[in-house]
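pipeline: protein-struct stage 2 | run 1193 | Apple domain-containing protein
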Amino acid sequence: MVWEASDWSGGCIRKNLQDCSTDGFVKYTGVKLPDTQHSWYDMRISLHECGRVCLQNCSCSAYANADTRSGGSGCILWFSDLIDFVGYKEHGQDIYVRMPASEIGEWDGRRSRGQRHIWIPGVLAWKCYNEDRLVELIDELILESSKQMEVFRVILIGLLCVQEDPIDRPVMSEVVQMLSSNTTLPHPKKPGFFIERRLHETEHLLSNPNFSSGNQMTVTSIVPRE
């Protein structure tokens, strides 16, 4: 009853609780690797060994090559939610995401039917906005309540905050004002989910020995776990 009353303070429970002994991995290709704040890496081990190490640790959520040059080398493991995980049109990398066996079976079934679509929440919101289908993003219980327009407004503000050009993005004080008022919002422009660099810029980054982010959107220094 508390959920029907829009009281979500108790949080939510994963649909399929992970049983570490039956977990597996689903390969996502052409992506920007997630934030590496809660990660661990070892340049000495292979990708196969990397997967074995991840599978043995129930806290490990994903793994990938730490360096994609020359066919790939090294290992990087994630031990938290995968944050800032987006798709690329070009120069993306491969990542293996941990899933329960039951979800892997559902994934394989969709893939065999040619339904292999990977939707990143922000990308889906932008697609629905352009096609005037934002209502599809909202839970039915909210649609039946008086908060529908409030949710629409929050989605639009979110799209304004991820516009491709930083100059177009509102600053925090403007976001607060948008959330606390009923002023008309500007139409969001194309988001920056697929920022691509010219090839020579990419090669320059990859040739830099201090470059450790593994993607062309941000440069993040990988810090090993203590």
